[in-house]
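Quarterly update from the structural biology core.
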Amino acid sequence: MFFHKKLKFLYLLIMTTISSIPVLANDPHSTAKPDEAVVQKLYLDINVDFGKKIISGKAQWTIKKSASADAIHFDTKNLDIQKVTIDEIENPWKFSWGKEDEILGHELIIPIKSNTSIVTIYYATSPESAACQWLDQSQTAGKKLPFLFTQCQAILGRTLFPCQDSPGIRFTYEADVTVPVEMLALMSAENPTVKNNSGKYHFRMPNPIPSYLMALSVGDIKFQSIGNRTGVYAEPSMLEKSAYEFADMQKMLEAAEKLYGPYRWGKYDVLVLPPSFPFGGMENPRLTFATPTILAGDRSLVSLVSHELAHSWSGNLVTNANWNDFWLNEGFTVYFERRITEALYGKDFADMEAYLGMEDLKETLKEFEKTPDATCLKLKLEGKDPDDGMNSIAYEKGYALLLLIEKTIGREALDNFLRKYFDSHAFQTMNTEQFIAYIESDLFSKFPGAEEKINLKAWIYNPGLPTNCPVIVSVKFNDVDIEFQKWMDGTAPKSLRTANWFTQQWLNFIDKIPATTSIARMAELDTTFKFSATGNAEIADAWFLQSLTLHYSPAYIYIEKFLIEVGRRKFLMPLYKEMMKSAAGKELAMKIYKQARPNYHFVARQSVDELLHWKDGL
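Predicted structure, tokenized:
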């Protein structure tokens, strides 16, 4: 088509300039302007100081810019920016501060020249940096050395290092990390398995990740292999128990690959953290962070590991473009998780998980009756902390939608679509509107009438649960119904047929306990099944919630111990909410929280502070 060489050269030059940076939309939760200048690769050189509770060093970014860009914008929060340099030879350079926001932090603006490709930022975190949880010896399992772990989702990466803190912006990284010589450092990268004598560790992540998947942990940590591509890290005293609990990790990985294609991250390991970790798990690439509350001793809570493994495809491989599209990460992951557990443990097990998930979703829908927009899959989080959108709506309503699609077009067709979806969008981002267009053209077009039957847009943009939501039943819970009715009819707990029940069955039983139950009958259950003293955190939390509701005071001492020791937000919030319903309960909540608060990660503290009006109350 081009007959004139000069015109062809000019055209190619213009197109190269236009395509010099990826087409990325601005994120309402980031000050970055990726359409002007965007990060591509990070070299992090940092020192971890447990005495001062700070991380300091430099973040050297390789960037790409448009022809007209004269600055690059970074997100920071509670960071001490000490100096900035540009180019490989690190010429000292200027910087300025842009807008400041309570949620978003402080915008860092660095001028750039036409040929700028490297920007280096020397910085230090503060002891208040929200991503970092610094634990003293007493807060660890071993009680010998302190411990550090980070949690960057959703927008806490900017408190750990200066970055363009949006899930839509991906980068590769290498890091040199210096820690006390008696400790091991791990990251969301290629990791060591033993301590060295220098305390200096090098890390490499060759696949591009968003900032929320940056992770660091430092402590007295050991490793045990599970399979040729899987293993577990934990404090020495927790390692054997953790390895037993996660014995099926290699099988999980292989089952996942059979469903949706090859695992693209090399190894898959799990790090069991101290109990203050605020979530069940965090899907950091190559190194899932997990709460010790899933160490039930019977492998009954392993669905959490399958969930975080599934994120290696939905979330880590194909990522929500911003936090308004959170359901694209979590709804897909819950569906994938339950397919993995079904492949390994059978349909009955997966059905129990799905049933309990739907019950949790129904409770969440009740909580948001006055704010129905919060129950849409596509969120509207502008001006809000995106953490506010991280509830069971994205997880369970998203799962229910995919289950409906499966039931409408068939499992094989959905599997083929999802495998192609992950392959064709690997290491890319996806927003809701792009997904709708993709599924309409690539799947629904092959099944006339399916789109109308499913009504995808109503599921995504309308509040609540549509009337065509699949009904989820569990055969295993039929056994629970029979034994529970016996108990209601007066049968003593010790005579119930509960041998070999799964954790999920016990949860179903406890949830059925009516509000009219006497203290004597609660005591009879507790004496027989040792609910208050159980080491299974899921059962304990469900029992404690009923104990508070029914004013079963013998459990209160166990509740206090549980809330002081465990920082998982899933467990904290229902118990504190229940206590806040009465004056006596509020007094108990304040008493417990005063002791427990120092043990909680920022994410948990933020939620409980708001619930208890902590600043106003004390």
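The two ends are 75 Å apart (CA to CA).
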